[in-house]
Amino acid sequence: MMRALVLAPMLLWAGAAAAQDHSHHHAPEAPPTAAQEADPHAAHRAQAATASAYRPPALTDADRAAAFPFLHVAHDHGDPLMWMVQADRFERTQDDALAWEGKAWIGHDRGRLWLRSEGERAHGKTESSLEALWGKPLDAWWDVLAGVRHDDGDGPARDWLAVGVQGLAPYKFEVQATAYLGSGGRSMLQAEVEYELLLTNRLILQPRIEAVLNGRDDDARGIGAGLSETSAGLRLRYEVRREFAPYVGYEWSNRHGRTAEHARNAGEAARDRGWVAGLRFWF
Fold this sequence. Notes:
Keywords: Signal. This is Copper resistance protein B. It comes from Thermomonas brevis. Residues 22-53 are annotated as: Disordered. The chain is of the alpha+beta class. The protein is 19% helix and 50% strand. The protein has a 12-stranded antiparallel barrel with strand order 2-3-4-5-6-7-8-9-11-12-13-14. The chain is globular. The N and C termini lie far apart (97 Å).
């Protein structure tokens, strides 16, 4: 009798626990319909058709303005006319030379006019280049360009026909390569690669390398055939605003072959390196 009195509460507690456990289970699934039994993949095909029928809305000028607020838009419909001016490098070197590299463009998505300038003023002499190029997009990342270039500075001025590409390579390397053809059988290839490493949202480290090759000697300008010049730089900038960023860096430059010989004969160094400080801006 005593054993029954002890076991009865335990049995009642076990039954309540089992009922509570069953109440937490999901309700059994409804049996498949006759149509589902005949074609078990019908539901999956209907879901896929619904997903493939979705089309994202078309981009509007308001969307472009929100994504690219720095672009200057001339009108608000169709393919708008836009423009931009940017100085990638505007700097003083350790030996008190002034160097710059910049570009400006104006046009539409289907084509743009590019102006590019690069140069240096040191020891009372200025060497510069100016290019005017028409660019057509190959895809979302690359443009092909063709136009003219004018070089001025030490020695006679030179004019070139130019064709090249610029864009964003895999892993976000910015690439610019241009081939030039001048009078008298002169030719030149100039290539530049740079990368931006975000240390923070505003602090950016930018390595950059550049190489110049010439097809033949140009003694009047102190240039030899083959690989004539290479340069590499490392710049750390702080974006006070996205369009205004002071920086400091270190630059290496080397002249090679007969170009180095011409430099030494003129009393200049074939190799140069030192600190730089400057400003990167756009508007």
